[in-house]
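Q: What structure does this chain adopt?
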Amino acid sequence: MSGESGKVFLIGAGPGDPELLTLKAVRALAAADVVLIDDLVDRRVLEHAPHARVVPVGKRGGCKSTPQAFIEKLMIRLARRGSIVARVKGGDPFVFGRGGEEAIALAEAGIECSVIPGITAGVGVPASLGIPVTHREVARGVTFVTAHARDGGAPDWAALARTGTTLVIYMGLQRINEITAALAAAGSGAVPAAVIERGTTTEERSVVGTVATIAAQAAAAGLGSPALIVVGGVVALAKRSRAVLPQRHSA
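A:
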């Protein structure tokens, strides 16, 4: 390893299917000396980094996780030793992936950093079910929101319901009863909704219903994390779209 400072690539691996990795990400992985990989990333992406040392730095809700401060210090230490570091995250690093925090930490440490976007789960996962998150006749926009805030607080679900946009809710399955109750109280009980587990992968499972029914449907199907909740009129297009899209397993 040279005495020159290395660099860090913040790489988005996409929503699950390893074939959704971008060509730019593949090139960065091939150049990497060390790969820091999240739990939710399909390990088949490591085929593109055959010579790199692999360090798992997983973060899973309800499970033992690698502290964020440790990950940032490790990236800085490795880069200062001259390593090319690939920090690989599910989805997109700047969409609920803490990529912004890591980019700032690297910049403050004087470490060169390149961000390689990935397909965020909020777009890729609904698409696997034939759900467009926007549609000019149904949804004028899309709102990505996490149900898991650092301070433990909850979004203003009533205000979000009034936006008229598709809601794509990350990390919401554990709070689905609370979320759907709040949306229903805001008058959205009849709005189409879906829960999609492990979207874009061969283990994908899903249920489609309404805000009023989807929590019970997800529980009956035994859906688990990682999963997305999608709420909005576009969900009703799933059955129509799936007639011409490759079929995946649905609960």
